[in-house]
Design a protein that fits this description.
With 93 residues, the chain is mostly helical. The protein has one domain. 58% of the residues lie in helices and 0% in strands. The chain is built from 3 helices and no strands. The longest helix is centred in the middle third of the chain and has 25 residues. The mean pLDDT is 85.
Length: 93
Amino acid sequence: MMCQMNQLSQMNQEQLLNFINVVSFQVIDTQLYLDSHTQDEEAIGHFNYYMDLRRNALQLYADQFGPLTIDTANPTNCWKWAEQPWPWEGGNC
C-alpha cells in the first residue's frame, strides 16, 4: 500500500478515517506477530512503514478535522477536542 502525503491530503474525512483504521490494523497485527518473531527484519520494516503512514494520517486528520488521539492534539488547546463534533455527528462520515 504505497500512499503519498498528497494522496492523503486529497481524501475527505470519511476516507481518511477509514485509511487510519486500515493502517492501524496493519500496525497492531504486525506488532502481535513481532511479539513472537522479534528478529524478523521484514516484519520490522513493515511495522515501521505502517507506523509512519499512521502517524502522518493521524496528524493530517488532526490538522483538518481535529485530533483523534491526544498525540496529535495541539498543546496550546489540546482540550478543545471535546468541543468539536464527533466523527459521527454532523453527517460528514
